[in-house]
């Protein structure tokens, strides 16, 4: 399986609490729900197409707890049967078992366990949200693709996917598609270490 990060981002790189004001208020975050005004049918169709490629979900503890709270109750949502039925893998050093079946807890050396999962047959192991987990696996060279959905808003506070001092990575653009509601859907393959140069050198 390949490991794919799917992340909702603001223009200033915030990934925290895109879906509702009370989705994730950790750290005193008060600006949740910034992604919702830009949702449209075209993006919902795209998200459904992506979800149909998943053979498992890989989540950090915070995202897992939020999803485990919300998805089992969203019986009318068209994605609910897939989200609730897929195998879930949650990275946590404190959780011993998951309440959202079927769940496997990854503790200890999470990167090594994800590397083992990548060797199994299948299509995609998708990371939804879970910015800290995505950062650590990017640093470990275990991310194959980034699907970044950028909303035209500056949130001004909150956790970011790419933080100061984080892993450097070279990316290869695969596609970029604007949505009618203003979202920009950007897909990148991870291409190893980034290259650096000097403007005008050798000219």
Describe the structure.
This protein has 203 residues and is α/β, with parallel strands linked by helices. It has a single domain (2-22, 32-161), classed as Dihydrofolate Reductase, subunit A. It is 22% helix and 25% strand. It has an 8-stranded mixed β-sheet with strand order 4-3-2-5-1-6-8-7, with helices on both faces. A hairpin with a 5-residue loop joins strand 7 (171-178) and strand 8 (184-190). The longest helix has 11 residues, at 41-51. The model has no long low-confidence stretch (mean pLDDT 94).
Topology:
Layout: E1 2-10, H1 41-51, E2 54-60, H2 61-70, H3 80-85, E3 88-91, E4 103-106, H4 110-118, E5 124-128, H5 131-139, E6 145-151, E7 171-178, E8 184-190
Parallel strand pairs: 1-5, 1-6, 2-3, 2-5, 3-4
Antiparallel strand pairs: 6-8, 7-8
CATH class annotation: Alpha Beta
| Unreliable residue runs | none
**Mean residue pLDDT:** 94
At CATH level 2, the architecture is 3-Layer(aba) Sandwich
| Strand line-up in the sheet with most strands | 4-3-2-5-1-6-8-7
Biggest beta sheet attributes:
8 strands, mixed
Shape: globular
- Give me the secondary-structure category: alpha/beta
What percentage of residues falls in helices of 4 or more residues? 10-25%
Tell me the CATH topology: Dihydrofolate Reductase, subunit A
What proportion strand? 25-35%
Count of extended strands: 8
**Considering the protein shown, what is the CATH homologous superfamily?**
Dihydrofolate Reductase, subunit A
How many individual helices?
5
| Order of secondary-structure elements | EHEHHEEHEHEEE
């Amino acid at each position: 399986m390949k490991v794919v990060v799917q992340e909702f981002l603001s223009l200033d790189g915030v990934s925290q609490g895109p879906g509702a004001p009370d989705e994730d208020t950790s750290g005193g975050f008060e600006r949740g729900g910034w992604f919702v005004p830009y949702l449209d049918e075209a993006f919902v169709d795209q998200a459904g197409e992506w979800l149909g490629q998943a053979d498992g979900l890989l989540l950090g503890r915070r995202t897992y707890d939020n999803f485990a709270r919300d998805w089992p109750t969203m019986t009318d949502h068209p994605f609910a049967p897939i989200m609730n039925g897929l195998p879930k893998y949650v990275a946590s050093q404190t959780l011993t078992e998951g309440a959202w079946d079927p769940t496997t807890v990854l503790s200890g050396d999470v990167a090594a366990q994800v590397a083992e999962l990548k060797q199994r047959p299948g299509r995609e192991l998708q990371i939804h949200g879970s910015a800290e987990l995505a950062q650590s696996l990017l640093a470990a060279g275990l991310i194959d693709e980034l699907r970044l959905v950028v909303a035209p808003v500056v949130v001004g506070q909150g956790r970011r996917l790419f933080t100061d001092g984080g892993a450097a990575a070279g990316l290869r653009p695969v596609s970029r598609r604007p949505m009618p509601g203003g979202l920009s859907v950007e897909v990148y393959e991870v291409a190893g270490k980034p290259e650096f140069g000097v403007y005008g050198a050798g000219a």
